[in-house]
């Protein structure tokens, strides 16, 4: 019975069902190994399983060489050891827990916790000995509490299902639900665009936004946004009607976003370069009524409009499919209408829909996450507070439109009289121009994905360049490695780092870890919850797990969005109910994490196959479903491969009678998926390997893909199958090998950079590797190795002539 | 980690709150306060079908009321 309770507590603390403990039997002796599988069921079953697992009765198991991490010591119980089948109700509740982690006696080797049971006159005494460098006193006290709770519930009703019972005390539950909640801050009862309008009245002439050398004042931006709002209203826009904005990232884009919100519509960002199929699916699924666009951004939009309606595979009906009405921003801004420049003053509720971002969906169709005005405003204010954005500062807008972080980058400064600098895609893809843009623009606040932060840091380390007025950088979208944080503070001790974590469904970031030095933890924490947000780490019953134990990260509070647009089924399955706060909605992230001793959240992994590559969220299932539609493919699997440089890419495996043309497969996937979701490498198999229970053995495939990545490269896609000849070609081949993570011997003169797995980010890296002799433009225009080498030679030649 | 919210063979109920928002809920977990059972225990597919049929306006009820009042 003691062993059953002990195993139960261990299982809960580790988040694993299979536990191993050392066990000292009554009467003494050396600790013997005791492994136990804590399966869902009632206490009686668990006690019987514990009985069978006793070292004296169970099969002999080898003891771990380093000793046990945890030992249950019953040596003091020389007699009166209770029979496991008949728990006595008086024994356990009479026990008292005493935590004494400073007493290190009896903790050999790897042992971090020794649970000792002593007999006393009126019952038993529980004594916990912990290694003080691993466990602190409050933790040991809580563990003692969990043991007593387990014994109490077990003896109260042996037929109760133990997996439905929480071991947490009322105080710890309250601490986790309320104590770890983000700070409560009043949310103004006004919408984001109304707060912007207040700033316009205060300082109409202050610069609100800059792009490519053009400045718009607060007043100029507001007038344009108002014209767009009035034009939409005049055409019959109703509250919450979805308006797609299909533009490059520029000043009219900014006016369009504000205009849609002012009119009471819902903003739907669409990147002009997305595949037509995906645009059609987004417009159809969201029942989009208006499209705001500009000449030059309509090429794929034209294809998408030719076939309106969702073309996804789910077969779910899409209501009210109508062809969205297209408006050109130039025309709209030039329209003469009385009062066109004035604020429309349309009443917009706090719970009204503000925007929709489509994210990858596992069934093959993207899902549109809806967020409301209150959630959006709360997040904008959290960014303003935690990044300390104030009047006159410059905030950089660098993220693509389809990435939800683009929104706060674009508009948060407008609430406090700051300035937004839109850094165009040409700059983002050319690290030298990017840093120049940040420095020349006086940027103080920046948010990037960690992989880009690494590229930027490498570049400035090599050049010994400063970053101008930059004051704080936020990293988001993927795990921020501690090594990068160490490098950052070594170079820029005065520029803060903020690790941000959150999901599109929760109105972007919900946790900010504000750092002014390298954190003490092994991993960079996700930080505490932001204002008015609650984050729980829970078990399968949505009950918080013990502090420090792994569990699913779920969200409650104003941040939780409304669900997925026109998709009640996927909404009801992911957006739940908060059992701890009446009537509140809860979003289950599918992320696994745990609490650190200071309450900060640590990310441990994903429950499902969702992954992130360069900050973009990807459902592996969506890619696999599209791969299955390629003629000839019978089965498919996609795995994530991490290169030696730590950068991740996708590798696809397909089962088919014969190998398919890689170009052909890429073309099919590229027609339906954004570029970041198209796998880099393709492996043909006659059949895919299966696990014991008949599922595709992804682990084996990931291993194969990892080995293949370090061994061979994809054959070059184009001709000219010969080794590099000139010195420049050979040097370039070495640089490609490093950037693309393939052996230099495999690289040929005729090789195509982007067809060999090159991405925009690896092209930026190549630019850095080449020491600036190859610009990103050179690489894009001359993706074949020999061609690029020739262009680089020409640059060098010209450079010599100039300096001569 | 298995998840009772995504178990295709599990038994579920459908919950609705005052805002008309629906949620799939494993049958063996207590109904949280603020929510009522709209459909009693059934298969996951049947519950999803119920949601699909009955949750047609995804706006919160209070917002629908406010927007309707603003229109009239």
Question: Could you explain how this protein is built, in words?
Answer:
The complex is a heterodimer of chains A (804) and B (72). Chain A is built from 24 helices and 31 strands. Chain A is of the alpha/beta class and 804 residues long. Chain A folds into four domains: 134 residues, no CATH class; 401 residues, Rossmann fold (3-Layer(aba) Sandwich); 103 residues, GMP Synthetase, Chain A, domain 3 (2-Layer Sandwich), CATH 3.30.300.30; 77 residues, Orthogonal Bundle (Non-ribosomal Peptide Synthetase Peptidyl Carrier Protein, Chain A), CATH 1.10.1200. In chain A, the strands form eight sheets. A six-stranded mixed β-sheet of chain A has the order 2-1-3-5-6-4. In chain A, α15 packs parallel to α22. About 6% of the residues of chain A have low confidence. By secondary structure, chain B is of the alpha+beta class. Chain B has a single domain, classed as Structural Genomics, Unknown Function 30-nov-00 1gh9 Mol_id (Rubredoxin-like, Alpha-Beta Complex), CATH 3.90.820. Chain B contains two helices and three strands; from the N terminus they run βββαα. In chain B, strands 2-1-3 form a three-stranded antiparallel β-sheet, covered by helices on one side. In chain B, a hairpin with a 4-residue loop joins β1 and β2. The longest helix of chain B is centred in the C-terminal third of the chain and has 11 residues. The radius of gyration of chain B is 14 Å and the shape is elongated. The model of chain B has no long low-confidence stretch (mean pLDDT 84). Classes of the chains: A alpha/beta (804), B alpha+beta (72). Chain B: InterPro entries: MbtH-like_dom, MbtH-like_sf, MLP_fam. Chain B: This is MbtH protein. Chain A: GO terms for molecular function: phosphopantetheine binding. Chain A: This is Amino acid adenylation domain-containing protein.
